[in-house]
Specification:
Rossmann fold, binds 4'-phosphopantetheine, alpha/beta, 6 helices
């Protein structure tokens, strides 16, 4: 039986920290599906869901066993559709733990077949988040090493459009 893992998130935008988790999990599982949440509660996203999917596809092109898709609603329903029982989450610091623990328990309560596996972030990315990337970009800071090079210009362009 092939092992399919789902790596869910908002990815607005994908960072090098996310990409590191995708690459490492692609070496462990037969297939990794990056699930981009279409979340109507999150007001003013930088990128639309389809743009985020396109950016992630671009930077994960080199991994044969990685797929990218958006989903709406409950993660466990998306997991069922994709025939996966494993959620991958990255943990950066103790501060992530409480929220992630709560989500893992809730998902397991909703479907007891679902397991959440946590992967510790690589130390060089432990400070990195999509929100901090957006702040740096908004004020014209250097994005080198924070996001994949292939998408840097897309982020810069978004902010110049917003400000222009
Ligand atoms: O990158 P994020 O915003 O921390 O990702 C959060 C995400 C997408 C993993 C989480 O919000 C999610 O799974 N949302 C779908 C709704 C759901 O299934 N909720 C029940 C678990 S609390």
């Amino acid at each position: 039986m092939s092992k399919i893992a789902v790596y869910p998130g908002s990815f607005d935008p994908i960072t090098n920290g996310h990409l590191d988790i995708i690459e490492r999990s692609s070496k462990i599982f037969d297939k990794v599906i990056v699930g981009v949440l279409e979340n109507p509660e999150k007001k003013n996203p930088l990128f639309s869901v389809s743009e985020r999917v396109e950016l992630i596809k671009r930077v994960t092109e080199k991994f044969d066993n990685v797929e990218v898709e958006s989903f709406k609603g409950l993660l466990i329903d998306f997991m069922k559709k994709k025939e996966s029982k494993i959620i991958i989450k990255g943990l950066r610091a103790v501060s992530d733990f409480e929220y992630e623990f709560q989500m893992a328990l809730m998902n397991n309560k909703l479907d007891s077949n679902i397991e959440t596996l946590f992967m510790m972030t690589s130390s060089q990315y432990s400070y990195l988040s999509s929100s901090s990337v957006k702040q740096v970009a908004m004020y014209g800071g250097c994005l080198k090493g924070l996001v994949p090079d292939e998408i840097t210009q897309d982020i810069i362009k978004k902010f110049s459009k917003k400000q222009g």
